[in-house]
Amino acid sequence: MKENILEKTDSLVKERGRGREYWRSLDDLADTPEFKEFLEREFPQGAAEFSDPISRRGFLSIMGASVALAGLSSCRRPVQKILPYVTVPDDLTIGNPEHYATNMPFGLGALGVVVESHEGRPTKIEGNKLHSSTQGRSNIFMQASILDLYDPDRSRAVRGPGGESAWEDFVRFWVSARNGYRDTKGDGLAVICESFRSPTLARLKAEFLKTFPKAKWVTYEPISDERIYDGIELATGDALQPIYSFENAEVILSLESDFLMTEGESIRNSGGFASARRVENENGSMNRLYVVESSYSTTGTMADHRIRLRSSDVHSFTTALAHELIDQGVNIPSAKSAPRTTAGFDSAWLAAVASDLKKAGAKSLVIAGRRQAPETHALVVAINAALKNTNSTVSYVSLTDSSRSDLGAFGELVSDMNNGQIKTLFILGGNPVYNAPVDFDFESALENVSNSVHLSSHNDETSKLCSWHVPRAHYLESWGDVRSYDGSLGICQPLIEPLFGGKSDTEMFSLLATGDSKSGYDVVRDTIKNEVGSIGFENNWRRILHDGLYDGSAYSSTTPSINHSRISAALKKSSAGSTSAAANNLEVVFVSSNTLDGRLANNGWLQELPDSLTKLTWDNAAVISYQTAQELGLKNGDMARLSLGDRELEMPVWIGPGQADYTVMLALGYGRKDIGRVADGVGFDTYKLRSSSAPYFESGASLSKTGESYPLSSSQDHGAMEGRALLLEKTLDEYRQNPHFASEMTETPPLNSLWTEHEYSDKYQWGMAIDLNSCTGCNACVIACQSENNVPIVGKEQVAKGREMHWIRIDRYFSGDVENPQVSHQPVACQHCEMAPCEQVCPVNATMHDKEGLNVMVYNRCIGTRYCSNNCPYKVRRFNYFNLTKDTPEVVKMAMNPEVTVRSRGVMEKCTYCIQRITKAKSTAKLEERDVRDSDFETACQQSCPADAIVFGNIADPNSKVSKVKARNLNYSMLAEFNTRPRTTYQARLKNPNPKLPLTAAAG
Amino acid sequence: MTIKTLGDVKIPPVDEILVVGATYSSITESVSSITEAKPTRNWYLVFCMAASVMLLLFSLIGYLFWEGIGIWGNNNPVAWGWPIVNFVFWVGIGHAGTLISAILFLFRQRWRTSINRSAEAMTIFAVICALMFPTIHVGRVWVIYWTLPIPNQMGLWPNFRSPLLWDVFAVSTYFIVSLMFWYVGMIPDLATLRDRAKKRLRKIIFGVLSLGWRGGAKQWKHYELSYLILAGIATPLVLSVHSVVSFDFAVAQLPGWHTTIFPPYFVAGAIFSGFAMVMTLLIIARKVLGLKHLVTIRHLENMNKIILTTSMMVGYAYACEFFIAWYSGNDYESFAFLNRAFGPYAWAYWIMISCNVVVPQIFWSKKLRTSVPVMFVASLLINVGMWFERFVIVVSSLANDFLPSSWGYFRPTIFDLGILFGSFGLFLTMFLLFAKFLPIVAMSEVKGVLPEANPHHPSGHSPHRESVGSITG
User: Which end of chain A has less neighbouring CB within 10 Å, N or C?
Assistant: First the structure.
């Protein structure tokens, strides 16, 4: 199976190198065996004459026919050869995809995934239901990682000091160098790696350091949770892994923590949070979320109360909160002598939050974000302990087999490099030339290193300056092992041989540690054998591979003892007050983006994914508040010079409602150069402003208008709902007073139809319910749909023209205060109206209904009048203005789902409710002589949603999950008055504000 | 109806001003000589310019077919952009021709005679331009024939509920009937050209085209009857075509489109724009081709009166839309109209109002409505205004519809501009060819309004109209 794929990719690589093959003349084409065979078949008598030289007349007529036919065949679609397996692998039925469990290493943890593979070609990634990190759900990075596998710009060969080289050369280089270093105990040898949590890698790292005790080993991540672990270590004496149980939390205070999207176990957190927030009827209860943050995060959009606070003030907010809790009788010894300031925030607000937290007792949770200082985190640990949250809403497990990012150690290494102490440097993953703090000047430090080796997926900024570059294998190409957040052991198994000859981390680490080039498989088996014991190992191994994790290997939680005096000492030391902010003293905040820290910048899906808040695509901008923009005379798209100390960067400005005044949010991970066709020239490199002393936020910046402007592509220009009842939202109290507000707000006069209506009497009637109360706007559904349905990307200019192709989009509405508005998300895909306006206007019947209520789009019949789009009140139809897949590289085509048509130029497309999955479920059910059940399948968006906001199923069955959700009194149809009768309905959003605090305006 | 009854109809007293100082022979001479003389340098110059613009159009269409319609500014939500604006614009222009010919013929408005031929030609060419737009605007032009009800083995039919399909039928019917009406009306004149032809090729071509016309009484009888019938068919079509075109919008449920006033409003607008276009062309033609004695100020003034009337009908429709938007209490509807007047497309809306409602008011003054420079400028402005009317309807309604999240803004591209510009090249090229090679004025009919043709005229001795269409002048 694998050999075949290899051959295919080999030939693809060759083909790419050579360029497309054109046939030069008609003779070329007429000469092919296919053509001759065709002639033989079609003109058996003529063909005999063809080979008979005497019949000149016949010869000429056949020649005429063949040339004519050759011309004809050139008008047809190019013929592609599909080669059958010589030996079909076991358990494989051609056309039926297989599913494999594996793990996606993600920072200091791992996400359990299940990968769909079509004839050896992985095409889709889903969460692993058996794995608690995902519980079958996913996020954008997981969904988009399939495209990274097929990134045509990944590096394809080892490069040595003398140019193109081979793995064997590299092995020889290291083996000879290694002997020298063994004698010096590794003096002059250094390794920079990315953070990981893997028994194998940890074992190999230890082995390496044992062999080379004088060698330096540094872990560096540009965006890491380093400060969180430092804080926990400060508080408990041990860097423990916190595990949050949002499902148990009734009152949550987030101190700039984006736990629903970019921080920690966001998939798991979203699930827990949504389950405590979802309300089934007016008697239900829901959690309450307070958020304090400088820039709007996805978590912030879910807040019942949110205040804008500069990141530098969050620490004093936390100490003030601790003092307030102490005043209210909560015992937090560590905070007693901490300096207390109340500047910059409303103390009444603080008091209300504190009393709410106290009231919730062990069902409260305070969580601080990764940008905050270690002492803030230490204090938060103490607060949670004082509120008795430990082991209720937060628990701690030990963080074994990990390598944590350490900025200080990285700085030391850089100075060693500058001093010429480092002779040989291995950079295993990461891209420090691009993303190291500017004051490190890593680029010039690297010049002092005589031998540098970079293991990297792309020939990137760092690779170009290193003497060796080794292509890095994707996790779907590698053997490896991981521990996830709770310590569960899992194996990464490859789904495909490395497409471009990449080497896995396991193989590289192993070579470094042992000097032997061993296969990753053997190395990982060795580790697992140590972990699970050799008795019954083979069974266990296969079990772990099958399940994706070693069941029962999760750690049990420890109850840490809190060292209050150490926290207290740290708090006294910490500089509480910050300089007063003003338009000439701005605070910049560095946040991660859709590209993560830039490593995913060559992923087109992620680049085109609208940011949850700004809805910007293909760019990052300096996000400032409305007031700050007014004072500085800036507007959206103005270029501005951002100066911070001696650092300067020109970039466009975007006004972000809800941004704290005098702060500038800068997304990291853009402005990459010479990486690949997608990443190049997208956005602005904000790392250029980032220093090691203040890597997450820094004051003293100024913005000045340059007078130029820059086109930014936003997928949604208008944020106000204009008072229309589109996204319904009320407070929990209002809901309890009037449980039927949703139906009342969408009440219509009796609706009659002009013509006979469809009957929809089949036993399956498909419908979808979207719970707006759970949706966090995390975008996972958008990428999942893109991956499942082969949705093309269109590029920045086309997005600016409103031609993005996403079948599902997240509408984001602002309401209330201009400066600190409330944000609501509404996922919108084709609503599958029973009385669809699109169907009535199509002149060629290209869009129509099936008996199961699906509004189907017949691509073959569509002539592209776009009338359907005009008449669609939800504007969910997407038109192929160009041949969007024309330039798709061959290797990217491997990421396509073979069960979904790739649409041609000039046709309309839209959400199909994943009709391919419905059809498959129906045929499976038919074979098993039963009806389709809820558990048989999920649509791609539903499957990905970490908050379980989307439910799909048979609405004709009153017992199906979707019917039950639709039966809730929160259920409503958007634009019901048009009698479109959509099959997708929404459940109104609820807010649970604290009655003691002023109500934030509700949308709708 | 027969000629006899035609003769019985009381012919209104012929106003001398209709045709100035012309005789049968001078009419034949002045019209026929245009087609017989070698084209002038000026004609060549203008033709070359028009043809180059037409070639530009064809190359842009070629590029369009090659690349896809993404080269235009169309987007989501504005899925219909300039091509549909241009379509409605050209269909509208294509109205005056048949209206002038058929309706005025039926109402015995004899002043139409000197302008009806060129007006009909304008109709044909405008409808050709119009038909081009929906054709090239579809995503997959190579399967455009699927809109036609062609029986096929799969039993697939078009969707008869779709207004676009009605459009296909309405516009193509209108085109065919207009073409027949134009051609049939031209037969006696073609025969005149045939008879005057000196060269063999000319003889053959006009011989074939004139279908053996001899000017016999029987032929005149058939001719008059068929012309009358065609006029009868064409008249309701004038009203129906633009009504059906308006259904494209009125049947959709988009605020700003979904209004019952559209059919009459569109017809009025079409007549309005059609007259303005005829005016523009006639003013040029009578000057360049020296037809001032045939196309008199009297003609132009009458047309200006119609322009003024239709302008006020259109203005009424604009006001009525606003009233209904307010009166209906429908939020989407009232937003759509406020957005038109004060939203991002306000500039287009006020161009439309100024050109279509304000400018024509000058024609209340007799002095202004008889001043050729004034009416020329006014007719140009009305053409601009009517184009903007369609732009406002199509684009502003689509750009801001139900869900504010999908709102967008339409920006035309160089290709939008090029293709609109090119369509004028196509139109002008066809018109120039017509003006050079076919009788631009209906000779036989103009002769009919000469004083001599009136049996009651002191100098008139022709009891029968057929003598008017004599074989030679």
Answer: N
